[in-house]
Specification:
By secondary structure, the chain is mainly α. It has 43 helices and 12 strands. Helix 15 (380-383) links the parallel strand 7 (371-377) and strand 8. The longest helix has 26 residues, at 581-606. It is elongated, with a radius of gyration of 37 Å. The protein starts with a strand and ends in a 9-residue tail after the last helix.
Length: 955
């Protein structure tokens, strides 16, 4: 790989420069970003200096080009780099052009063109280049050369020059012993030269090697030739064909549609199709499938244009119209007539029957290399009669359905555009306006769901409305009820494309599609789908798989199904238009009953000690999830958490308030340990629902506790005081005790120990009177904190010991971890650091095992406090940093403040005044927001740090 001037190689490019240059030349005319060049050169393991190396390579290449007077061919664009060589400057382009020209000439002229093209080859491509892309690129380039060699030999044989090419053919066949077409030509040349035995021997050697290396038998055309040579068939001895102008039927047939100039992205898909196109020895079938609007046809046509040079005998295209508005699908027989006419056969030579046409199609393709695009297929049966037999052709099929019933087909499922490619497509259509509003462009693309058709329509609307800004378009698309209407032009409507896909589903599939659109969450499993559709589990799963095959659903993991966002809106709109209101209401009621019952079952497995405090939920008539143990229950809750929260919002806003209240009450222990944001959202919805269905005391109690956990103390007090009054009026001792417990915790945190003790002792009495053992254990642990604050260490230790025993008796491992952490703090204050470290570590490990990440931060802070007290500030810093990361991830403000406090004091102990002051200031801000006395404590440390010179810790 080199740059030359007048035939003389130019120095100045190192191996890495040539790697970048080679990839730019392979994609001449295409803008390549630095990220794409990095991926191409280094693959999955780029060095830290990769971007700098790319820039250095471009600079070096431009310097060499400038020396040759051609610096303008390498351009820098806003999105990357592009090489635009002039005619005659790039040998691979010249080679492809010569091969293409040869297919349109008579045999004699074609031979000359091909031989001239082959002289451009000098050894292995990229022999001096080491990069990730080289192996695949080299294979594709060598395939193009071999295709030209095979075509050349075929033409030479047709001209009667079998003796003249024998040496050349033998050398090529020896160099490529598994090329069936080369061996075919060699056998024919040997036979025509009177060497029948040698011809048969060459065939046997090829057959044996193919079986040993690939476990395959040669194709039918090879077997026919072998038998004909064995029989000394006179038809093999052809007279030389005189040079004459090629008849009209033999000229190169190119019926590919227009290749859109603003095609963007799809590099991986194009590379995959080019790899398929580099295959040899038999027909290659590739099915490009995907949802409506994903860009299947554009990809197939673009790939076919790029691969045209490797298929000199024709580029064919037929639209099968399986999903064309107002048009019936094209029958296979009619499609075959189109293809045969494109090959140049006269109409009178085409038989009328499907079987005869299919046989003629296979016969005509035998010995040819064509690429055929069968667009918009409806099913495997739709295209099966159109598949070739013994040929080295490539057939690209596009379909909205997966064509898994076609044997030997290579499936390529087209996904949504990556953000970078979507930006490139949008920018190519609207031009410079995209650069002025990059954030708005991303908003539009997000609202289009990165679906190519939606992106094209949105960009086209903007292009035709010069007074619109990108932000204005984004605003229009944000209206969910009008989004599909906005994504339409005079010629294209996204909703119409979706409607056609819906039209080709059967009745049960259509109903499932519509009902899934009602689901308020992100995804479904077969159980939720069965509940929505009121159908057996197996049937629900079959329908989901049918919709997946039709690309009406997507699957991000086995057993989970979801919509593209725009298809979800279409499904919801279709359901609203076609499903009666009562049917929609019944479907959602079944779904919410399913979630409620399964959540209750899961919580009874995970927290059996609290089963009596949860609402009773009737068993639904729909299929039940088999939750065998607490581990399975936890997995189900984690998997369905987002759907459960979304359901809670929907039930509040659309007439199922009892479901909201019950769901919040059931999930409270699960959400309250690690998912505070979700818990706050659900309990807020439950309070709103309680206005119409009662249960207000419970909702206030749960919301007050969650506010306490998040450090929103004023709200916690307001909600809990209201809950105490309501619970007392209704005689609900359980809720009253829980509300008093929350108030006691807030006051303890604010160091109002007498008031905190009053509330907690009231809570303890209520728990014991009502037999609430789990509540009693929790209150004992909290009361110990108050006694410790009052200096009553013995009673505090006694309460913790009693609480630990009770939690262990009840099997409440979360409560056990909480008490262990508090015992660790007490041992630290007593100076018993080893015991303190042991208890805090046990608490951390228990929290970790339970998945209580937010509580784990509390134990890590405890370990940090112990390390600092024991004189190990470095260890303290590590523990507090880990605590801070977890607390931030889960919105736990009290533990964030405590972590910053600990970090400030640990850095102070190491004389690192700068770090100490930075953390102290952050701790002070958080403590102030929490309105707790620790703000004064840390302020004193800040004052002390302010009078000391800034320093760094020594190692």
């Amino acid at each position: 790989m080199e740059i030359s001037d007048g035939g003389h190689p130019l120095p100045g490019t190192a191996p890495r420069h040539r790697a970048v240059l080679g990839y730019l030349l392979l994609h001449a005319g295409t803008v390549l970003s630095a990220d794409r060049l990095i991926d191409a050169v280094w693959g999955l393991t780029p060095p830290d200096t990769a971007r700098a190396q790319v820039h250095a390579a471009v600079t070096a290449i431009r310097r060499v080009l400038r020396g040759a007077g051609t610096a303008e061919v390498l351009e820098t664009r806003p999105s990357g780099y592009v090489i635009v060589p002039r005619p005659g400057q790039l040998d691979s382009k010249e080679f492809d052009a010569a091969v293409a020209d040869a297919s349109a000439e008579d045999p004699e002229k074609a031979v000359g063109l091909l031989r001239e093209a082959l002289t451009m080859w000098r050894g292995q491509p990229f022999a001096d280049v080491n990069a990730d892309y080289v192996a695949d690129a080299r294979a594709r380039l060598l395939e193009r050369r071999l295709a030209a060699v095979e075509r050349l030999m075929e033409l030479e044989l047709s001209l009667g020059r079998h003796r003249e090419v024998l040496d050349e053919l033998s050398a090529e066949a020896a160099a490529h012993p598994l090329r069936e077409r080369l061996c075919h030509h060699l056998m024919l040349a040997l036979h025509r030269a009177g060497r029948q035995a040698d011809a048969l021997s060459a065939g046997r050697v090829f057959r044996r090697r193919l079986a040993e290396d690939q476990g395959l038998d040669p194709g039918r055309a090879f077997a026919v030739l072998e038998q004909s040579i064995l029989n000394d068939d006179p038809g093999l001895h052809l007279a030389p064909v005189p040079s004459r102008p090629a008849p009209a039927a033999a000229r190169r047939a190119n019926f590919l549609p227009f290749d859109i100039p603003d095609f963007a992205g799809r590099d991986e898909e194009l590379d995959e199709l080019e790899r398929l196109g580099a295959g040899s020895g038999s027909v290659t079938l590739a099915a490009v499938d995907g949802m409506a609007g994903i860009g299947k046809t554009a990809l197939a046509v673009h790939a076919a244009h790029r691969l045209a040079g490797a298929y000199p005998d024709g580029q064919l295209f037929v639209d099968l119209h399986a999903h064309t508005a107002g048009q019936a699908p094209l029958e296979p027989g009619a499609a075959l007539e189109v293809l045969l006419l494109q090959l140049g056969l006269p109409a009178e030579a085409i038989p009328s029957g499907l079987v005869a046409r299919s046989a003629l199609w296979r016969s005509e393709l035998a010995g040819r290399r064509v690429i055929a695009v069968l667009d918009n297929a409806g099913s495997a049966d739709h295209v099966r009669p159109l598949l070739p037999g013994a040929t080295e052709s490539l057939v690209l099929i596009t379909s909205r359905r997966r064509l898994s019933d076609l044997d030997g087909i290579r499936a390529l499922t087209v996904d949504l555009l990556p953000a970078r490619d979507a930006v490139e497509l949008f920018t190519r259509i609207i031009g410079e306006r995209a650069h002025a509003e990059p954030i708005a462009v991303l908003d539009v693309l997000q609202l289009c769901g990165f679906l190519p058709l939606a992106v094209r329509i949105a960009a086209a609307r903007l292009h035709n409305r010069p007074r619109w800004t990108v932000q204005y378009l984004a605003g229009r698309l944000r209206d969910q009820k009008r989004r599909l209407t906005e994504l339409s032009t005079a010629d294209r409507r996204l909703a119409a494309a979706f409607a056609l896909s819906h039209q080709y589903l059967d009745e049960d599939q259509q109903r499932m599609f519509r009902l899934l659109g009602l689901h308020p969450g992100h995804d479904v499993d077969p159980y939720a789908a069965a509940a929505l559709a009121d159908t057996p589990l197996d049937r629900a799963e079959d329908l989901l798989e049918d919709l997946l095959d039709a690309h009406m659903l997507q699957q991000h993991e086995p057993g989970r199904y979801t919509f593209h966002g725009l298809l979800r809106e279409h499904a919801l709109a279709t359901a609203a238009a076609t499903e009666p209101e009562q049917a929609r209401h019944s479907a959602l009621t079944r779904l919410f009953d399913h979630y409620l019952y399964t959540a209750r079952t899961a919580m009874d497995l995970i927290h059996p000690y609290g089963a009596g405090q949860r609402p009773v939920v009737p068993r639904p008539d729909t299929p039940l999830v088999d939750l065998a143990d607490p581990a399975a229950a936890t997995v189900w809750l984690e998997t369905e958490r987002a759907n459960l929260i979304a359901s809670g919002t929907h039930t509040t806003e659309h007439g199922w308030p009892v479901h909201t209240g019950h769901l919040a009450a059931i999930l409270r222990p699960y959400l309250g340990h690690a998912h505070h944001t979700d818990a706050l959202a659900l309990h807020t919805q439950a309070l709103q629902a309680a206005r119409t269905c009662g249960e207000r005391a419970r909702a206030l109690t749960d919301l007050g506790w969650e506010c306490w956990r998040l450090g929103r103390y004023a709200e916690a007090v307001t909600h809990s005081r209201s809950a105490v009054e309501l619970a007392r009026e209704s005689g609900d001792r359980l809720l009253e005790s829980r509300a008093h417990n929350t108030l006691g915790n807030v006051l303890w945190r604010q160091r109002d120990y007498p008031a905190a003790r009053d509330h907690l002792e009231t809570a303890l009495t209520l728990c014991r009177d009502s037999g609430n053992r789990i509540g009693e254990a929790h209150v004992l642990g909290n009361l110990a904190g108050v006694h410790e604050g009052q200096g009553l260490l013995d009673s505090a230790h006694r309460h913790l010991t009693d609480a630990l025993a009770l939690h262990r008796l009840l099997g409440n491992r979360g409560g056990e971890a909480s008490v262990l952490d508090r015992l660790g703090g007490m041992y630290r204050r007593k100076g018993c650091y080893e015991e303190a470290r042991t208890h805090c570590r046990q608490a951390k490990e228990l929290y970790q095992e339970l998945g209580y990440a937010s509580d784990q931060a509390e134990a890590l802070n405890g370990l940090g406090d112990v390390a600092r007290a024991a004189g190990d500030p470095a260890r303290a810093i590590a523990e507090h940093r880990a605590a801070l990361a977890l607390a931030r991830d889960h919105g736990n403000l009290p533990e964030q403040a405590r972590a910053h406090d600990g970090l400030a004091r640990a850095h102070h102990a190491r004389n690192d005044t700068g770090e100490a002051r930075a953390h102290a200031l952050q701790a002070h801000g958080l403590y102030t927001a929490l309105a707790v006395p620790e703000a004064d404590d840390i302020a004193e440390l800040i004052r002390e740090l302010d009078v000391r010179p800034t320093g760094r810790a020594s190692s």
